Amino acid sequence: MPNVLVVAHRGARRVAPENTLAAFTAAAAQGADGVELDVHRTADGVLVVHHDAAAPGFGVLADHPAAEVRRGLPAVPTLEEALEACAGLLVNVEVKNLPGDADFDPDERAAVALVELLHARGGRDDVLVSSFNLATIDRVRHLDPELATGFLTAGVDAREAATIADGRGHGAVHPHVHSLAGPAAIPVVAHSHDLGLAVNVWTVNAPDEIRRLADAGVDGVITDVPDQALAALGR
């Protein structure tokens, strides 16, 4: 079985609340190679880990300073806390910033804050920055071309996405599993690899699908069940 990275989607979210320190430490305990997490920017520029722009009963995170987020949502970690909890793991940081989002920021301040945080931490983190918004990862590459970036996609042609990502200097594509259904996987992965891109597929939970994609040559699977993915891969 090919060597495929197993990345825990929002941590080991089947055994602990997603995007929490508990979910990240559980993923590490299960043997995951990395975790995927989502970040938003608070009103005072702190990056916090949460999937949606808003939280029920609290509101849009970007409308509140970090201290208020901590008081109102104590389980929501800062990205820095998450990076500490994930020491030794690959951390796929998905920056949420699409037009239409409640906290959409055309100035890409979350991307800037992310690069500044990683620089302040002295480059000791193994981070891959991804986003559905090409402008976001473009900004990251502009600020630091050495940081790994990946184009996250859903509902678009995966081969075309790889060509676009390569043309803008990104090193990975993260297609949704449905775009690699059936026989489509092998030519898409081959095309991406010909361009020098890694292919990390989300969200893949079924053991047969994990093995099929591994046989097709994907580089990583982003999964809700890292322990089961590892077992499916014979690890």
Instruction: Give the radius of gyration.
Output: 17 Å
Total number of strands: 11
**First-last Cα distance:** 9 Å
Order of helices and strands: EHEEEEHHEHEHEHEHEHEH
Q: Mean of residue pLDDT?
A: 97
List segments where confidence is low: pLDDT < 50 over at least 5 consecutive residues: none
Strand order of the largest sheet: 1-2-6-7-8-9-10-11
Mind telling me which CATH architecture this is? Answer: Alpha-Beta Barrel
CATH third-level topology: TIM Barrel
Number of domains: 1
Strand content: 15-25%
CATH class: Alpha Beta
Largest sheet: 8 strands, parallel, barrel
Helix/strand-derived class?
A: alpha/beta
Helix-strand layout with pairing:
Elements: E1 5-9, H1 21-30, E2 34-41, E3 47-49, E4 54-55, E5 59-60, H2 66-72, H3 79-85, E6 90-95, H4 109-120, E7 126-131, H5 134-143, E8 148-153, H6 158-167, E9 172-175, H7 185-194, E10 198-202, H8 207-216, E11 220-223, H9 226-232
Parallel strand pairs: 1-2, 1-11, 2-6, 6-7, 7-8, 8-9, 9-10, 10-11
Antiparallel strand pairs: 2-3, 4-5
